[in-house]
Structures
1.
Amino acid sequence: MADTIVEQEHEAAAAERDAKLAAVAGQLDEAPPQDILRWVLDHHPGTTSLACSFGMQSVVLLHMLHEMNRLDEVEVFYLDTGVLFQETHQTRLRIQAKYSFQAVRVAPELTWEEQQAKYGGHLYERGADGVNQCCAIRKVEPMRNYLADRGAWITGMRRRHNDTRNRLPVVLWDQANNLVKVNPVAALDDATLWGYIKANDVPYNPLYDQGYGSIGCNTPVCTRPIKPGEDPRAGRWAGMGKTECGIHVDGRSVRSLDSSQL
Ligand code: SF4
């Protein structure tokens, strides 16, 4: 009986929390990204992280925070899977130098080589199941561990990425990782982001200029350039029916996205 009462109290508290966040999401739904960033920094001081792939969304968010003089209030982190492109690391170094911050490296327990030794080769060569397992080991688990003691995280998720995200709120409770999740650029399209990058001379990953629409791990399966007219995400796990790596699964309305879209 006592357990039931405690469970009911937890459920009621969760429902109240979700309702409050839904109200905030409604108020900020059409707000500029800077207002959404301001909200999370004001409500989660000292415990807000920015997930950064150094992709186009990330660099826009970093520039905005820098312009707001609030970048030092955020802990920027990136997932180092061990097989990121050199261009991604170089972009990280350039943008860290420009905006004077140091991103936290979040890495899996196993090195890339240790993983191959343990599993007898590349998991990404073993179809969708192998890819999912690899992403779970190298992205999902390390990020979940990192977020365990954080209060809120900022992502670069956008509504246009696929249909499952059309209802993506700008603020929500992240059920899987147990913290507030904020998506300040949810409503922005590619043209708007690129316009911002160019107008503000924001450093970006040069692979975008080489035909890559979405940049993740540097393996033959996981990232390739796209052809003219293809969806930007067509170059990720091409032909495998997979579009997401699972780090954004929240167990409810919004499914997931891959770390390159942070
Ligand atoms: S994107 Fe590819 S290499 Fe990177 S974690 Fe997923 S399966 Fe592994």
2.
Amino acid sequence: MAASAEVQRIVIENCAIATVDAGDTEHASGHVVVADHRIESLGAGRAPEGLENVVRRIDATGHLVTPGLVNTHHHFYQWITRGLATDHNLFNWLVALYPTWARIDEPMVSAAAQGSLAMMARGGVTTAMDHHYVFPQGSGDLSGAVIRAAREMGVRFTLARGSMDRSEKDGGLPPDFAVETLEGALAATEATVDEHHDPSFGAMTQVAVAPCSPFSVSTELMRQGAELARRKGVRLHTHGSETVEEEQFCKELFGMGPTEYFESTGWLGEDVWMAHCVHMNDSDIAAFARTKTGVAHCPSSNARLAAGIARVPDMLAAGVPVGLGVDGTASNESGELHTELRNALLINRLGAHREAALNARQALRLGTYGGAQVLGRAAEIGSLEPGKLADLVLWKLDTLAHASIADPVTALVFGAAAPVTLSLVGGEPVVENGRLLHVDEDDIARATRAEAQRLARIAAGA
Ligand SMILES: [Zn+2]
């Protein structure tokens, strides 16, 4: 076919490059050649002479090129409930918001997904995820709505199909009207996997099985969810060890801590990643390392909800895969991942390891390769290497905000949020000069405001 013979190349030159490969290879001034969906070559100096079918040649002077950022934990629907219950801890914040969340419908979720995705993509996210676990009866096709929004934005996407079936009457935290039945949740999750999960190299949409948390999910749903995921060959995701209150809940209800509870229900393993993992003792961290269970570190959300500081330096030293997460924007109103590089570094330096906690390169690795690892996609994305997918970002570092910082990775992580001149997902442009190419930001802003107001009206009348 003509298409395969006529490979199309994009050449990017004169930029600093942080590959985030196994050796942390960097080039002060180098080139990246993209051929169709993949990285063909990269290195120091100018691109090789004589390349054919070059459709675009970019002089990226003043820029740093990195792998695209990978978000590993989010709840898109929360985009329309930002700025509420602003001075609460996790459990009080959840109890305050559950009644509103239980009134969401498909147009609301669609607008919220667009808002969440737009904010992240504009800031260099090329792989997004949504942990969606609120499915009110008759609310429409919520999973389809978020998947359509991600496709429209042009980013790679994992939908973690969540669920809750332990309500107040069973000793759980959510109100009875906000949960599904065990059978209903499992059947809907399996149908979502069958309809949307693409296991192939370069997939744009994948699905994970994702019961919400120990305090909102029955032990049976945890167990059967793990069995379902393994039968289908998809990944597992949940919240774990987020707060001291959760730890107490597990000890009272199950007679063990969260990590032992996860182990007893089949929830430790290299196909599992868990959000937060703030309250982990040495043996919890050893269990995660031994089983290669991944962690989505969400520093801003953990600070917003006064949850604590996750022991990321200890996890990394033990060999636990760690990525970064925005978390839902009801507990991280900025909704940005590139600023989480900085927040991860700063917040971890307030912990036990002080200035040795994390450096700029480690923070960049958390947001790229670490994220690819916990999503099970490290062979495809997360670092810039020949043969991998061309998911990459050109950060503009030659303006007032960064120009006087000599080291580009230091500028990106320690400095102000850097503008994105170009982001590619599988070689396809998603952002150019700070603007999203496939959607209109102002339209999305109007739609999300209207849907937030509609939800607030419905919730007030409930
Ligand atoms: Zn969360």
